[in-house]
Write a structure and sequence with these properties.
The protein is α/β, with parallel strands linked by helices. The chain contains 14 helices and twelve strands. The strands form three sheets. The chain has a five-stranded parallel β-sheet with strand order 3-2-1-4-5. The longest helix has 24 residues.
Length: 374
């Protein structure tokens, strides 16, 4: 069967790239011909566009009066973005090597309709494609609206990114979802949202769990470092993460390594500013402990059997993603919203966790394969 998936696959985000690869790879393993629709709306092209480098805020006002300072100030204001240029190179390399994308890159929903890709089945998902707080959830492309035949459209592990639909978008989301033959979502909160809209759905695992730990390890290169705590503070601003990291680093005499999307962390012993998806996997797989505010850093900590702690993303109402997942695998104590809730006596029993994951894997694979055989 020819299958095309549509998701956020090229936004310089570790989880987005790796979940896109995982769904593609699993479907290929079971014998299907798979392509990811290379859909990249203009609003998702903001990262690393150095041709548009410019000053903003008060520096922009200064540049108006002193034009000769424009370039130096723009470089200074965007210094952290420039520092992570190697990160872009590694992400681009990952896409070229691992993601089997359509030959056409679509920059708008209108273009997607006009030059509609051909497939026997379209799969929307995973990640926060239906989060209406972002452009994703307002974009008909992520509901497969470009395909007129409803029976050719399903979702796999799609996420609303929240435990409720933003007021005013309920009818839009419901009408968009009615275009899908079958719906599966990643979180239990997603099931509750569907019920509130009068719709049915199935909860399944994120695509990264469709692949084995061995498969993910095969993608990793040689071990770079050892004896460290890995930090992935997505927004680089969580004091609770800093406090816990320093405490555990001192207690266990381990270095702190931080993977950064933007600026370095002042308290880290090593700042990694050039990690692509493969390097992200390597650092998680070799860590002694992982502390993050990321769903997929949490997911891969579980896949690689790491001790970990997960914090909510400050200022964002999308923590239901992590909370639902950890509740499902009986690790709810690993989700803490403040340093005061840290429990040093809690040790993860991965024998129990892996049994739950195995059962959920079987259910998820069965649902997906049954949709493709109908």
């Amino acid at each position: 069967m020819k299958i095309k998936t549509i998701t956020c696959h090229d936004v310089y985000n570790y989880g987005a790239s790796l979940q896109a690869f995982a769904l593609q790879n699993f479907l290929e393993q079971v014998g299907h011909e798979v392509q990811i629709i290379d859909y990249l709306p203009n609003k998702k092209r903001r990262r690393y566009e150095y041709k548009k480098l410019a000053t903003t805020g008060f520096l922009h006002n200064i540049a108006l009066y002193f034009p000769f300072l424009t370039i130096p100030m723009a470089l200074w204001q965007n210094r952290w973005e420039l520092l992570s240029l190697g990160r872009k190179v590694n992400f681009d390399s990952f896409k070229k090597k691992f993601l089997h994308c359509t030959y056409i890159q679509y920059s708008s929903y209108e273009e997607l309709k006009e030059r509609k890709p051909i497939a026997d089945m379209f799969i929307a998902g995973s990640d926060q494609i239906w989060n209406v707080s972002y452009e994703n959830g307002k974009d008909p492309a992520f509901y497969c609206a470009f395909e007129s035949n409803k029976n050719k459209c399903i979702s796999y592990a799609a996420s609303f990114g929240s435990d409720k639909i933003e007021i005013g978008y309920e009818d839009y989301v419901k009408q968009s979802l009615l275009h899908l033959k079958s719906i599966s979502v990643r979180e239990y909160s997603g099931i509750n949202i569907l019920k509130s809209l009068g719709l049915n759905g199935t909860q399944v695992l994120d695509p990264v769990f469709l692949l084995s730990q061995d498969m993910w390890r095969l993608m990793c290169g040689e071990k770079k470092m050892s004896n460290y705590i890995l930090i992935y503070d997505f927004l680089h601003n969580d004091y609770n993460i800093k406090k816990l990291s320093l405490l555990l680093s001192k207690k266990y005499q381990k270095k702190i390594i931080s993977i950064n999307d933007f600026k370095p962390l002042s308290y880290a012993d090593v700042n990694v500013n050039n990690a692509g998806p493969i390097e992200f996997l390597e650092y998680v797989s070799n860590a002694d402990m992982v502390i993050s505010s990321s769903f997929h850093a949490t997911a891969f900590s579980v896949i690689f059997g790491k001790q970990f702690y997960t914090f909510p993303l400050l200022g964002h109402g999308n923590s239901s993603r992590m909370r639902d997942f950890l509740n499902m695998i009986s690790l709810d104590k690993r989700f803490i919203d403040s340093f005061d809730k840290f429990d040093s006596t809690d040790i993860i029993d991965y024998d129990k966790v892996n049994l739950i994951i195995k059962e959920e894997q079987i259910k998820s694979k069965h649902w997906l394969l049954s949709q493709l055989s109908n």
